[in-house]
Amino acid sequence: MKVYVFKSLPPFLWGYTRDLRAMWALEECGIAYEAVGLDCGPKGLQDEVEFGVVSPFRQVPAIDDDGYVLTESGAILLYLAEKSGKLIPSDLKGRAQVYRWTITSLNNIEPFSLPILFADLQGDSNPHLQALRPWHVEILDRFLPTIDQMLQAQPFITGADFTVADIILTCVLRELRKTEILARYPNVEDHRRRCEERPAFVKVLNAYEDRLGIPRGSAR
Ligand SMILES: N[C@@H](CCC(=O)N[C@@H](CS)C(=O)NCC(=O)O)C(=O)O
Protein backbone atom coordinates (compact mmCIF):
# COMPACT_ATOMS: atom_id res chain seq x y z
CA MET A 1 0.00 0.00 0.00
CA LYS A 2 1.22 3.51 -0.78
CA VAL A 3 0.75 6.27 1.77
CA TYR A 4 1.33 9.89 0.81
CA VAL A 5 3.14 11.83 3.53
CA PHE A 6 5.25 14.96 3.94
CA LYS A 7 8.98 14.88 3.35
CA SER A 8 9.47 18.56 4.08
CA LEU A 9 7.58 20.91 6.36
CA PRO A 10 8.09 24.31 7.99
CA PRO A 11 9.20 23.84 11.63
CA PHE A 12 5.97 25.17 13.14
CA LEU A 13 4.09 22.17 11.67
CA TRP A 14 6.46 19.46 12.88
CA GLY A 15 4.52 16.76 14.72
CA TYR A 16 1.08 18.17 13.95
CA THR A 17 0.41 16.89 10.44
CA ARG A 18 -2.20 14.26 9.77
CA ASP A 19 0.10 11.89 7.89
CA LEU A 20 1.18 10.73 11.38
CA ARG A 21 -2.32 9.27 11.90
CA ALA A 22 -2.23 7.17 8.76
CA MET A 23 1.31 5.92 9.37
CA TRP A 24 0.48 5.06 13.00
CA ALA A 25 -2.59 3.06 11.97
CA LEU A 26 -0.66 1.23 9.22
CA GLU A 27 1.95 0.18 11.78
CA GLU A 28 -0.61 -0.89 14.38
CA CYS A 29 -2.57 -2.85 11.77
CA GLY A 30 0.57 -4.60 10.49
CA ILE A 31 -0.07 -3.54 6.88
CA ALA A 32 3.03 -3.29 4.66
CA TYR A 33 3.38 0.16 3.13
CA GLU A 34 5.56 2.41 1.06
CA ALA A 35 5.70 6.05 2.13
CA VAL A 36 5.60 8.50 -0.79
CA GLY A 37 7.13 11.76 0.43
CA LEU A 38 5.87 15.12 -0.83
CA ASP A 39 7.10 18.62 -0.15
CA CYS A 40 4.68 21.00 1.52
CA GLY A 41 3.59 23.86 -0.75
CA PRO A 42 4.41 24.73 -4.37
CA LYS A 43 6.49 22.13 -6.21
CA GLY A 44 5.20 19.61 -3.71
CA LEU A 45 1.66 18.51 -3.04
CA GLN A 46 0.29 21.66 -4.71
CA ASP A 47 1.94 21.15 -8.11
CA GLU A 48 2.74 17.45 -8.28
CA VAL A 49 0.62 16.19 -11.19
CA GLU A 50 0.15 12.67 -9.87
CA PHE A 51 -0.98 13.90 -6.45
CA GLY A 52 -3.87 15.87 -7.96
CA VAL A 53 -5.29 12.55 -9.14
CA VAL A 54 -4.83 10.93 -5.73
CA SER A 55 -6.12 13.71 -3.49
CA PRO A 56 -8.98 15.98 -4.65
CA PHE A 57 -7.96 18.81 -2.32
CA ARG A 58 -4.23 18.08 -2.69
CA GLN A 59 -3.92 17.26 0.97
CA VAL A 60 -2.03 14.69 3.00
CA PRO A 61 -2.65 11.92 4.02
CA ALA A 62 -3.86 9.80 1.12
CA ILE A 63 -3.49 6.08 0.52
CA ASP A 64 -3.42 3.99 -2.62
CA ASP A 65 -4.30 0.38 -1.90
CA ASP A 66 -3.44 -1.36 -5.15
CA GLY A 67 -5.30 1.26 -7.21
CA TYR A 68 -8.01 2.02 -4.64
CA VAL A 69 -7.41 5.60 -3.56
CA LEU A 70 -8.69 7.12 -0.32
CA THR A 71 -8.26 10.46 1.43
CA GLU A 72 -9.48 11.93 4.75
CA SER A 73 -7.57 10.75 7.79
CA GLY A 74 -10.71 9.49 9.57
CA ALA A 75 -11.88 7.49 6.56
CA ILE A 76 -8.36 6.13 6.01
CA LEU A 77 -8.05 4.91 9.60
CA LEU A 78 -11.46 3.23 9.57
CA TYR A 79 -10.62 1.59 6.21
CA LEU A 80 -7.30 0.27 7.53
CA ALA A 81 -8.99 -1.09 10.65
CA GLU A 82 -11.77 -2.77 8.66
CA LYS A 83 -9.30 -4.14 6.12
CA SER A 84 -6.98 -5.66 8.71
CA GLY A 85 -9.65 -6.61 11.25
CA LYS A 86 -7.50 -4.88 13.88
CA LEU A 87 -8.13 -1.80 16.03
CA ILE A 88 -11.90 -2.21 15.63
CA PRO A 89 -14.34 -4.78 17.04
CA SER A 90 -16.01 -7.25 14.71
CA ASP A 91 -19.60 -6.66 15.85
CA LEU A 92 -21.69 -3.85 14.37
CA LYS A 93 -22.46 -2.13 17.67
CA GLY A 94 -18.84 -2.25 18.74
CA ARG A 95 -17.75 -0.84 15.37
CA ALA A 96 -20.35 1.93 15.65
CA GLN A 97 -18.71 3.06 18.90
CA VAL A 98 -15.40 3.39 17.05
CA TYR A 99 -17.12 5.44 14.31
CA ARG A 100 -18.84 7.54 17.00
CA TRP A 101 -15.68 8.49 18.91
CA THR A 102 -13.64 8.95 15.74
CA ILE A 103 -16.27 11.41 14.52
CA THR A 104 -16.43 13.11 17.93
CA SER A 105 -12.70 13.85 17.75
CA LEU A 106 -12.89 15.12 14.18
CA ASN A 107 -16.22 16.91 14.45
CA ASN A 108 -16.49 18.19 18.04
CA ILE A 109 -12.91 18.62 19.18
CA GLU A 110 -10.72 19.34 16.14
CA PRO A 111 -12.82 22.31 14.87
CA PHE A 112 -11.79 24.06 18.10
CA SER A 113 -8.36 22.58 18.85
CA LEU A 114 -7.00 23.54 15.43
CA PRO A 115 -7.85 27.28 15.64
CA ILE A 116 -6.31 27.32 19.13
CA LEU A 117 -3.13 25.79 17.70
CA PHE A 118 -3.04 28.36 14.90
CA ALA A 119 -3.83 31.22 17.30
CA ASP A 120 -0.79 30.18 19.35
CA LEU A 121 1.44 29.64 16.31
CA GLN A 122 0.49 32.94 14.66
CA GLY A 123 0.34 35.06 17.83
CA ASP A 124 -0.33 38.77 17.42
CA SER A 125 -0.04 38.52 13.63
CA ASN A 126 -3.57 37.06 13.67
CA PRO A 127 -5.67 39.18 16.09
CA HIS A 128 -8.86 37.63 14.73
CA LEU A 129 -7.88 34.13 15.90
CA GLN A 130 -6.52 35.56 19.17
CA ALA A 131 -9.89 37.15 19.87
CA LEU A 132 -11.70 33.86 19.27
CA ARG A 133 -9.29 31.76 21.39
CA PRO A 134 -11.15 32.13 24.74
CA TRP A 135 -14.39 31.07 23.08
CA HIS A 136 -12.71 28.02 21.49
CA VAL A 137 -11.22 27.08 24.89
CA GLU A 138 -14.63 27.47 26.51
CA ILE A 139 -16.16 25.03 24.04
CA LEU A 140 -13.42 22.45 24.61
CA ASP A 141 -13.94 22.88 28.36
CA ARG A 142 -17.45 21.65 27.70
CA PHE A 143 -16.40 18.44 25.90
CA LEU A 144 -13.17 17.47 27.65
CA PRO A 145 -14.58 16.91 31.19
CA THR A 146 -16.80 14.13 29.83
CA ILE A 147 -13.90 12.52 27.99
CA ASP A 148 -11.77 12.85 31.12
CA GLN A 149 -14.42 11.05 33.19
CA MET A 150 -14.71 8.30 30.59
CA LEU A 151 -10.96 7.78 30.60
CA GLN A 152 -10.96 7.58 34.38
CA ALA A 153 -13.38 4.65 34.18
CA GLN A 154 -11.86 2.84 31.17
CA PRO A 155 -8.40 2.71 29.56
CA PHE A 156 -9.44 3.64 26.02
CA ILE A 157 -12.09 5.87 24.50
CA THR A 158 -14.41 3.04 23.44
CA GLY A 159 -13.69 0.80 26.45
CA ALA A 160 -11.10 -1.85 27.25
CA ASP A 161 -9.38 -2.02 23.86
CA PHE A 162 -7.16 0.36 21.88
CA THR A 163 -8.84 1.24 18.56
CA VAL A 164 -8.37 3.69 15.70
CA ALA A 165 -10.61 6.09 17.66
CA ASP A 166 -7.74 6.34 20.20
CA ILE A 167 -5.29 7.19 17.40
CA ILE A 168 -7.53 10.00 16.15
CA LEU A 169 -8.22 11.30 19.68
CA THR A 170 -4.50 11.29 20.53
CA CYS A 171 -3.54 13.05 17.30
CA VAL A 172 -6.27 15.66 17.64
CA LEU A 173 -5.28 16.35 21.26
CA ARG A 174 -1.62 16.61 20.22
CA GLU A 175 -2.73 19.89 18.62
CA LEU A 176 -3.19 21.16 22.22
CA ARG A 177 -0.11 19.55 23.74
CA LYS A 178 1.76 22.84 24.19
CA THR A 179 -1.22 24.74 25.63
CA GLU A 180 -2.46 25.19 29.19
CA ILE A 181 -5.68 23.29 28.43
CA LEU A 182 -4.83 19.61 28.81
CA ALA A 183 -3.34 20.03 32.31
CA ARG A 184 -6.94 20.41 33.50
CA TYR A 185 -7.72 16.88 32.28
CA PRO A 186 -5.31 14.37 33.90
CA ASN A 187 -7.02 11.26 32.54
CA VAL A 188 -7.01 12.67 29.02
CA GLU A 189 -3.32 13.48 29.38
CA ASP A 190 -2.59 10.02 30.78
CA HIS A 191 -4.41 8.45 27.81
CA ARG A 192 -2.34 10.53 25.38
CA ARG A 193 0.89 9.57 27.15
CA ARG A 194 -0.01 5.84 27.13
CA CYS A 195 -0.95 5.96 23.45
CA GLU A 196 2.19 7.87 22.48
CA GLU A 197 4.31 5.31 24.35
CA ARG A 198 3.06 2.52 22.10
CA PRO A 199 5.93 1.06 20.03
CA ALA A 200 4.07 1.75 16.76
CA PHE A 201 3.77 5.46 17.52
CA VAL A 202 7.41 5.72 18.65
CA LYS A 203 8.54 3.99 15.43
CA VAL A 204 6.37 6.19 13.22
CA LEU A 205 7.42 9.42 14.93
CA ASN A 206 11.09 8.49 14.54
CA ALA A 207 10.53 7.71 10.84
CA TYR A 208 8.60 10.99 10.44
CA GLU A 209 11.50 12.96 11.92
CA ASP A 210 14.04 11.06 9.81
CA ARG A 211 12.03 11.66 6.63
CA LEU A 212 11.83 15.38 7.38
CA GLY A 213 15.53 15.39 8.21
CA ILE A 214 14.96 16.95 11.63
CA PRO A 215 16.53 16.05 15.00
CA ARG A 216 15.02 13.23 17.04
CA GLY A 217 12.46 14.58 19.50
CA SER A 218 11.68 17.77 17.57
CA ALA A 219 8.23 16.56 16.44
CA ARG A 220 7.34 15.20 19.86
N1 LIG B 1 -9.80 16.60 6.66
C1 LIG B 1 -8.53 16.20 6.11
C2 LIG B 1 -7.57 17.36 6.26
C3 LIG B 1 -6.25 17.09 5.57
C4 LIG B 1 -5.28 18.25 5.75
O1 LIG B 1 -5.67 19.38 6.13
N2 LIG B 1 -4.01 17.98 5.48
C5 LIG B 1 -3.00 19.00 5.62
C6 LIG B 1 -1.80 18.46 6.40
S1 LIG B 1 -2.22 18.05 8.04
C7 LIG B 1 -2.48 19.39 4.26
O2 LIG B 1 -2.28 18.55 3.40
N3 LIG B 1 -2.25 20.67 4.08
C8 LIG B 1 -1.68 21.21 2.89
C9 LIG B 1 -2.66 22.01 2.10
O3 LIG B 1 -3.87 22.03 2.43
O4 LIG B 1 -2.20 22.63 1.15
C10 LIG B 1 -8.01 14.94 6.81
O5 LIG B 1 -8.38 14.74 7.99
O6 LIG B 1 -7.28 14.17 6.21
Poorly predicted spans: none
- DSSP helical segment count: 8
The distinct bound ligands, ions and cofactors come out as: glutathione
Radius of gyration: 17 Å
CATH architecture of the largest domain: Up-down Bundle
Proportion of beta-strand residues? 5-15%
Strand arrangement across the biggest beta sheet:
2-1-3-4
CATH class of the largest domain: Mainly Alpha
The run of helices and strands is: EHEHEEHHHHHH
CATH topology name of the largest domain, in short, is Glutathione S-transferase Yfyf (Class Pi), Chain A, domain 2
Give helix % range. Answer: 55-70%
Q: What number is the mean pLDDT?
A: 96
Tally of individual domains: 2
C-alpha geometry? globular
Query: How many strand elements?
Result: 4
Kindly describe this structure.
This protein has 220 residues and is α+β, with helices and mostly antiparallel strands. It has two domains: 2-86 and 200-212, Glutaredoxin, CATH 3.40.30; 92-198, Glutathione S-transferase Yfyf (Class Pi), Chain A, domain 2, CATH 1.20.1050.10. The protein is 56% helix and 10% strand. The protein is built from eight helices and four strands; from the N terminus they run βαβαββαααααα. It has helices at 19-29, 49-54, 73-84, 92-122, 127-153, 164-174, 186-196, 199-212; strands spanning 2-8, 34-39, 62-65, 68-71. Strands 2-1-3-4 form a four-stranded mixed beta sheet, with helices on one face. Strand 1 (2-8), helix 1 (19-29) and strand 2 (34-39) form a beta-alpha-beta unit. The longest helix is centred in the middle third of the chain and has 31 residues, at 92-122. The relative contact order is 0.15. The mean pLDDT is 96. The protein binds glutathione. Glutathione binds next to loops.
